[in-house]
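just leaving the lab so this will be short. what follows is a protein written twice so to speak, once as letters and once as structure tokens for the fold. can you read through it and tell me how you think this chain folds. anything you notice is useful, everything is just below:
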Amino acid sequence: MKKIITGFSFIILIGILAACGSSSTSGSGNSDKDEVTIGYFPNIDHAAGMVAEDKGLYEEALPEGTDVNYQYFPDGSAFMTAIETGEIEGGIVGPGPAMNHFTSGAKINIVAAGATGGTVIMARNGADIESAEDIKGKTFISPRVGCTHDVQFETMMKNEFGITSDRLDGEMKHVTGKPATYSSMFESGKVDVAAVPEPWAAYIEAQGTGEVLFQNDEVAHNVNMPASVFVTSEKLKEKDPGMIQNLVDAHKKATDFVNENPEESKEIAIAQIKEITDQELSQEVVDSSWERMNFTYEVEANEIQMFADSSYELQFLEEKPNLNGLVDTTFIEE
């Protein structure tokens, strides 16, 4: 088993993590490919990927003798490029990059979910923010402009409180940065509010630099919309649907393991993140993160379409997207 970290060093890698057609299967699960590469981010909402690697579940599901490699990515765009070029056969990524690449013409499919939830809105200690109204005139941070967490936060603020960002001539200033740096940016007073993917909300709490302003179940598109999804290419689906079925079967088994064995899964996640990134998350941080996530492989196309519509309404997309064909639930139904 070969492991590859694509892109940058740990600080860049871990900071960017979490940013932003139906076909019948062969039924046999056979594949003529003797080497398969799986991609994911070493992040809490990708726990199924870490468990599958640790337990050798892809190796079990694929034909005997198949070599399974793992590749870790600095951001969703790099992951999606690897899917499109065939550098990897499948893996876990945020729904935002999958949606954006699909609307740009990429021939890819979401074949399962990875997790839901996990976005929390944090306020800096000392910023005098106790309600949404207090965010007017303040600076908020998200991993990227138009990323999953940015869309979730701005949708909530616009629809529920009538408050928008300076990008829309509103009263909130928006900046971007790596989630791993949010705690230090709170401490220095550089930002006031953060749309935070886990585990970084729990990390901020543990560091004592900020407090929860809106819990994960209060944030737009954060209950049923996937925080992570399992993606493959349409080209692979046409050429070797049996391989995709094998990969999804392993992913489902890993997800079930996560739900049935949370404490062992947490240990695996802590160990994998440390091995990949050289940073060890505390048990306290992982425990808090885990409570804000729901690990599931079930995915609903309408949830992702609603998220895409929100992106359009916030003017992150120039045209209203049609995501018909992006989600293929064939393989999770087998």
About this structure: The CA atoms of residues 6 and 318 lie 31 Å apart. The radius of gyration is 19 Å.
